[in-house]
Design goal:
CATH topology of the largest domain: Rossmann fold
Mean pLDDT: 81
Low-confidence stretches: 303-319, 329-333, 467-479
Distance between the termini: 119 Å
Strand content: 15-25%
Oligomer: single chain
Helix content: 40-55%
Number of domains: 3
Number of strands: 15
CATH architecture of the largest domain: 3-Layer(aba) Sandwich
Shape: elongated
Bound molecules: adenosine-5'-triphosphate, magnesium ion
CATH superfamily of the largest domain: P-loop containing nucleotide triphosphate hydrolases
Length: 479
């Protein structure tokens, strides 16, 4: 018996000696080999798989988008199920963002599979060369565990589901922004807080429904656009007289789709290259707006010049070649070298496809002045005429401004609106409450007076032979 123990003792001692010698000659390979064997042994008994999603990733240790999406995804279910939370204020939102507390574990069920999420952190190793004492930094990460029989499901479906849902939550929670490029070659932004919606927008109901349907089809059309091989973007041209609600419609679109707005001031863009740069800086889920496109640049000049060359009449050609005088306040545009082809490229070129889910909106008061190439379908897919105020539109404004849906004066207003061209802006101004003592009836009567005087103006114009009925009426408001 004693002999056996002696043999065992010397055996163990020899093994240890061998181990130390091996460690001395193969310090790295041995540790790695042992770790691998122990992992294999563990995985043989442990049926679970583990994923980590670190907060910072990549060479430059950028904040990982996946981490943000997982955080948003879990914050949605956190508020229902977790018991301890971390509360943060989002970067660009006033809403508190809940995330799971340090020792919390959340279960999630997906297509019959159960997974577990937890938020963890590990200390970052201090650089040995650092001579001063830095505080211990911890890197956070999400830890996902699940049974290995769900491996395919988690990798192929569940993770994409989490990222998709998480991004959607981020979009809903964020404070939407209104960007502009004035006085800078970069976008600056302010919170977008315009209250206009399709409910408050005054226009014929059928037209409104058609536009809403079009926007919904666009928003849900990612797969469709991919199938037909078209970049996921859509162009709208809004045209009509001043005050018919073009800008109001853009705000309603942005509120409906939950998109940001990039209000592009073309006169502030110095070159086509800068225009492209600005485009690349825009994000998805946004509306890029160019207001009053006909005034922004002399976009038709290069095409017209080509046509003029072939004209026979030299005198007329000289006259046409003379640069048109710039409207007051627009002298700056001379500095801009954006050309029509630069703009066409911006709308339709290869770069325009990057990012996807963008709507482009041009507005103009003079659609006839625009180059056909600029507004052809494919660039400006949907042309929307913003009309003068009809009775249907008036009813929306009356409800907005006076809270009245039916009134005996409405009949008179309906008849007058059929004869007079008046913009929704002018109707809204007549209905607006400007002092406490003006009641609803007085405001409606005020509108009737305005409509009657507009009608008289039109009739006078027709009698003098100067009014074709197409000119804008000067509305003299009688308060
Ligand atoms: N269709 C409309 N529905 C609701 N409000 C409207 C409508 N049209 C005009 N308004 C009111 O009139 C004001 C001016 O409208 P808006 O700025 O949208 O006109 P616009 O067509 O963009 O004019 P412009 O061509 O001069 O830019 C808005 O603030 C809004 O209150
Ligand atoms: Mg406008």
């Amino acid at each position: 018996m004693v002999e056996k123990w002696a043999w065992l003792g010397s055996g163990v001692a020899s093994c240890m000696l061998l181990w130390e010698m091996l460690k001395m000659y193969f310090p790295h390979q041995l540790g790695f080999y042992v770790a691998r064997c122990s992992r294999r042994l563990l995985s043989f008994f442990d049926p679970y798989l583990y994923f980590t999603i670190p907060e910072f990733a990549g060479e430059r240790m950028k904040r990982s988008e996946a981490y943000g999406a997982v955080k948003a995804y879990l914050s949605a279910s956190c508020s229902q199920r977790a018991r301890s939370f971390r509360v943060e204020i989002g970067e660009d939102s006033d809403r508190p963002l809940l995330s799971m507390g340090g020792h919390e574990e959340l279960t999630d069920d997906f297509q019959g599979a159960r997974v577990w999420w937890s938020s963890r952190s590990h200390p970052v190793e201090r650089s040995p060369s650092s001579w001063y004492q830095t505080p211990q930094v911890k890197r956070r990460y999400y830890h996902l565990s699940f049974h290995k029989r769900h491996r395919e499901l988690v990798i192929n479906s569940y993770l994409s589901h989490v990222l998709r849902e998480g991004r959607a939550v981020t979009v809903t929670n964020r404070q939407r922004k209104l960007f502009t490029n004035i006085k800078s070659s970069h976008w600056n932004h302010v919170p977008f807080e315009h209250p206009s919606t399709f409910d408050t927008l005054a226009m014929p109901l059928a037209k409104k429904r058609e536009i809403i349907g079009d926007l919904i089809a666009f928003r849900n059309g990612k797969d469709y656009y991919a199938k037909i091989g078209k970049a996921w973007k859509r162009g709208y041209l809004l045209y009509g007289p001043p005050g018919t609600g073009k800008s109001t419609m853009i705000a309603a679109m942005a509120n409906f789709l939950d998109y940001d707005i990039y209000d592009l001031e073309l006169t502030a863009v110095k070159s086509n290259t800068e225009l492209r740069k600005l485009f690349i800086e825009t994000t998805g889920k946004s509306i890029i707006v160019i207001e009053d496109i006909d005034c922004s640049l002399d976009l038709t000049s290069d095409r017209k010049a080509k046509k003029k060359k072939s004209a026979d009449d030299k005198e007329t050609e000289d006259k046409k070649n003379a640069p048109p005088p710039l409207p007051p306040g627009m002298e700056d545009r001379e500095k801009s070298k954006v050309t029509l082809s630069g703009l066409l490229n911006f709308i339709d070129g290869l770069w325009s496809a990057c990012g996807g889910e963008r709507i482009l909106v041009f507005t103009t008061n003079h659609v006839e002045k625009l180059d056909p190439a600029l507004i052809r379908r494919g660039r400006m897919d949907k042309h929307i005429e913003m009309p003068y105020c009809c009775f249907e539109a008036f009813k929306v404004l009356a409800k907005n401004y006076t809270d009245v849906e039916e009134h005996e004066i409405f009949g008179q207003i309906k008849e007058l609106l059929e004869e007079v061209k008046i913009t929704p802006a002018d109707v809204a101004e007549s209905l607006m409450q400007k002092s406490e003592d003006k009641g609803v009836v007085e405001r409606l009567e005020n509108l009737v007076r305005v409509l009657k005087s507009a009608k008289e103006e039109t009739e006078k114009g027709v009698a003098n032979g100067s009014g074709s009925g197409e000119e804008e009426e000067e509305i003299v408001e009688d308060n």
